[in-house]
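Risk register update: the risk of archive-format incompatibility is retired. Evidence:
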Amino acid sequence: MASTSAGIVAGLTTAALVTVGVLTYQASAAGAPENPDGPRASGSPAPGASKAPRDRLHPEALPAGSGRGERVVYSVDDDRVWLVGPTGQVRRTFKVTPSTVDPAPDTYAVTSRSNRVTGSDGAAVEHVVRFTTVENVTIGFSSAVDGSMARPARGERTGGIRETRADGAAMWQFATIGQQVVVVR
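Archived output:
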């Protein structure tokens, strides 16, 4: 009886490993295809960008289907950013405070940067990295000079995705004009 139970356990383990392998392959094959024309400034969502599977056991894991190569990845559902190097390694990941206006899942490019300005909420901000506009609201990453990361008031239409000052400095160094920004759900 013991050898029969061991055989059943071994068979179930093998089946589970095969299933995990197949699901992993399918997830990697479902990734967003490369855009041969480079990052888009706006437009329709990139295939797969809005349905990137999440590793809920490891929320800091880079979302599958978030592109390839050097890029900034921003998850509007998880309020998290990943700075990804040219070979796909995550250089830094961090939580952010979202703006009240979300960009659509898509692939964008950094269009402008400002070292220090007044944000759309009236706060002094630094290391501003902008990548799109939604309904006349400019969307970008920034750090409040006073270090605050409070959520914007309800009803305000803001586009500033707030980072800590340390994360903002890292974003500033990484995300220069033209840098790819991939927005996923």
